[in-house]
Design a protein that fits this description.
Distance between the termini of chain A: 19 Å
Number of helices of chain A: 12
Radius of gyration of chain A: 20 Å
Number of domains of chain B: 2
Helix content of chain B: 55-70%
CATH class of the largest domain in chain B: Mainly Alpha
Oligomer: heterodimer
CATH architecture of the largest domain in chain B: Orthogonal Bundle
Distance between the termini of chain B: 27 Å
Number of domains of chain A: 1
CATH architecture of chain A: Orthogonal Bundle
Number of strands of chain B: 6
Largest sheet of chain B: 2 strands, parallel
Order of helices and strands of chain B: HHHEEHHEEEEHHHHHHHHHH
CATH class of chain A: Mainly Alpha
Order of helices and strands of chain A: HHHHHEEEHHHHEHHH
Radius of gyration of chain B: 23 Å
Chain lengths: 336, 394
């Protein structure tokens, strides 16, 4: 009974926003166009969040650490991607072929940059503390996050910077039943889906993925079976960083602005998403990302940008308290 | 020399040094001009001491990582905004409500209460808020607690930052949103009269110094009390503590309440000192600023936390803006052709300190004795006479 309440209660709470505003739309306009637009907006936000959430969930799954600096890894990925625009000579006037090739190269480089950064963070700030009390690495993670934010400030300054709108991300592609789909929406989803599929099959099929799952289950036993635990942990940070870098480029293309602080809220939203899906669970992180993205989309449009963080954090608290194991996750050791 | 004689001698020089230090700290503003930058920084540093000691109760003693301490600072400041300014100007037919205010203030509209009442109000509100924030974390452990407290800190900061959209009690707003609330009444104490931060900062300095002394006394008494020992037992091993009869729920909630109350006290003092409060201050960074003080000084070590708070207070308000960004260093950097503002990266410095301390010296600058012995002497006290002495003392 309790289990039933906590699972379906959470789903019911998640449905409050869309249902309430759906009814409001129906009574005001007689159709659901506005809600539909919110949902599409939310889905593409959610795609970005899902990519970031994967980093949280992978790392938490393997060493039970909230990698608080992960949002900043995403932010620096975004900054590097934006910096590479001019290196590759990309402008909104570049031809389609050049644009596709250039962006593919930038995607690879941004992913690589974020991944390297994430591995370095693990090496410097978390590895020396393995075996220390559990709160110690969390505190260094918070410290790293502030250091990286300030790297961002030194790089582009403390205010938001507009970047060239390479794709014309606001350009309408099609309109179905009054719902507008722009290039930005398509881009976010078209990059995210293959990446998530690649990641899932890597973790599920490859030898290294098997080592990751073994280490997540029992590091000590994994070591005895001949798995190099340190390398496996580094690999996990590498994968998380790759996803964050991709999210960084998408965000730069989609939002057409970059900011040193963009990683803080995105990171916390993504963490909420990871917990919502059940931390340590890859499919869960994607599902959570989409849900949080939709909540963010509705709240931005209906309640106001300024209130969105408060609303997402209220969801975070509700999930943590009533269903810390998430929607589809298994019981983690944390969920005492 | 026998050990006893050496101890006695150490103690005597120690006491002499302590008295000398105390006199220097108490009298230093007399040797500075009445409106002095250094006195100003010292007042801020001492008010951070109060907050850091409060956070230390939660993080250091009870071992519950609280990343949302800014919530209590916010409540403390808002208490002064609500009850010591003309914010609720329509109250009592625009004649206002006045309790224990100076002659000048008692003609103004709005609610105006004496500092002592503000402090009591802040304690009640923050202790209640602490319990409310603590309740959902009871079932959780470790890092999840940290995230839930962080979320609460952000929610409360957001609510005040958008408080101009919320109305309470008729047509009153909850806060002024991103606009500041000012002026906040100056402190007006019985016997000492009304302070004036525009003319003389010394009374503020001595007031906050007295506050710190009271808070220090309370902290030492709390640490050695039944409750304090329960907190430490909880930190060391929750299961063992519970099986020895420590009531977990009550103990945890009391630590949040007590820790929050100190944040509120400090906020209620800072409101009149700032003379204007703004919800833009209620940022996550502030929680980390206070946490860095606790970590730098040493988790659970009262004197360590005092040292950490004073050090970071001066680092933030004096060393970085006045020395590193001062003329001398600027000229040097200019001669290398560098242009660099250290103030911009202040929080990077705090982050760096956090990482550095946790990796190199996790017990802090002035470690708590119990923790240091744990870290350096292993577990068995029998082979080490020092540890035996310590156990007897505590």
């Amino acid at each position: 009974m309790r289990e039933f309440l906590s699972q379906y209660g959470l789903i019911a709470i998640l449905l409050i926003l869309p249902v309430v505003y759906g009814i409001q739309d129906l009574s005001d306009d007689g159709n659901l166009n506005r809600l539909g637009n919110n949902l599409v907006e939310g889905l593409s936000n959610g795609a970005i969040l899902a990519l970031i959430a994967l980093g949280y969930t992978l790392v938490y799954g393997i060493i039970e650490l909230i990698n608080f600096a992960h949002g900043e890894v995403f932010m620096l990925g975004s900054l590097s991607a934006a910096a590479l625009y001019s290196t590759f000579g990309l402008t909104p006037n570049t031809g389609t072929a050049g644009l596709v090739l250039g962006l593919a190269a930038i995607l690879a480089l941004a992913m690589l940059a974020s991944a390297t950064l994430n591995v370095m963070i693990e090496r410097v700030a978390y590895r020396p503390l393995r075996g220390a009390p559990k709160l110690a690495p969390l505190i260094t993670a918070v410290g790293m996050s502030f250091i990286l934010q300030n790297v961002g400030i030194l790089w582009i300054g403390a205010s938001q910077v507009a970047v060239p709108d390479l794709l014309g991300s606001q350009k309408h592609l099609i309109e179905i039943w009054g719902v507008t789909i722009t290039r930005g929406h398509v881009l976010a989803i078209a990059v995210t889906i293959p990446l998530v599929l690649l990641l899932t099959s890597f973790v599920a099929r490859s030898r290294l993925g098997k080592a990751m799952r073994a280490t997540a289950q029992d590091p000590e036993a994994a070591r005895l079976m001949g798995i190099n635990v340190d390398t496996t942990i580094s690999l996990t940070f590498l994968l998380g960083g790759l996803m964050a870098g991709a999210a960084g480029l998408i965000s730069a293309l989609y939002q057409t602005s970059i900011w040193y602080f963009q990683g803080f809220s995105a990171g916390l939203y993504a963490f909420t998403a990871a917990v919502m899906g059940g931390i340590g669970n890859i499919r869960g992180a994607v599902l959570g990302g989409v849900i949080i993205g939709v909540i963010q989309g509705i709240s931005d449009n209906r309640i106001g940008n300024d209130w969105t963080p408060a609303i997402v954090f209220v969801y975070l608290v509700i999930i943590m308290v009533f269903r810390p194991q998430g929607l589809i996750g298994e019981e983690t050791r944390e969920a005492g | 020399m026998t050990r006893v004689a050496q101890l006695r001698r150490d103690r005597r020089t120690g006491i002499a040094l302590a008295i000398l230090g105390a006199v220097a700290v108490a009298l230093f503003p007399l040797f500075r001009p009445p409106l002095d930058g250094l006195t100003n920084d010292a007042i801020l540093a001492l008010s951070y001491v109060v907050m850091a000691l409060g956070l230390n109760l939660v993080v250091g003693f009870a071992g519950l990582l609280d990343l949302g301490y800014v919530a209590f600072y916010a409540f403390g400041l808002m208490v002064t905004g609500w009850w010591a300014s003309d914010f609720f100007s329509s109250v009592n037919d625009e004649k206002g409500i006045h309790v224990g205010t100076s002659d000048f203030v008692s003609n103004l509209p709005g609610i105006h209460l004496n500092l002592l009442l503000l402090i009591i109000g802040a304690i009640i509100i923050c202790a209640t808020a602490g319990v409310i924030i603590g309740l959902p974390t009871l079932r959780l452990r470790g890092d999840y607690i940290a995230i839930v407290t962080l979320a609460f800190g952000e929610i409360i900061g957001r609510v005040f930052a958008n408080g101009d959209e919320i109305t309470i009690f008729g047509d009153n707003k909850l806060s002024n949103g991103r606009q500041s609330i000012s002026p906040i009444d100056q402190i007006n104490l019985p016997v000492f009269g009304e302070f004036d931060s525009a003319l003389d900062l010394r009374p503020y300095y001595w007031a906050v110094l007295a506050l710190v002394l009271v808070v220090l006394f309370v902290n030492f008494r709390l640490r050695d009390s039944r409750l304090g020992r329960a907190w430490i037992a909880l930190r060391e091993d929750e299961v063992a503590a519970a099986s020895m009869g420590v009531p977990l729920v009550k103990t945890k909630l009391l630590s949040y309440a007590a820790g929050g109350a100190f944040g509120g006290i400090s906020g209620a003092f800072l409101g009149p000192f700032y003379a204007s409060i703004n919800a833009n201050q209620f940022q996550f960074g502030f929680s980390i600023f206070i946490l860095a003080m606790v970590i730098l000084g040493g988790l659970g070590s009262i004197w360590g936390v005092v040292l950490g708070a004073v050090a970071l207070g001066f680092l933030n308000h004096w060393f970085i803006p006045d020395v590193l960004d001062g003329e001398f260093v600027k000229d040097k950097l200019d001669s290398f052709g560098l242009e660099f503002s250290f103030t911009e990266v202040t929080f990077g410095v705090f982050g760096f300190l956090l990482v550095l301390m946790m990796v190199l010296r996790p017990e802090g600058l002035l470690p708590e004795r119990r923790r240091q012995i744990e870290l350096t002497h292993g577990e068995g006290p029998l082979d080490d006479p020092q540890a035996a002495v310590f156990e007897a003392r505590v």
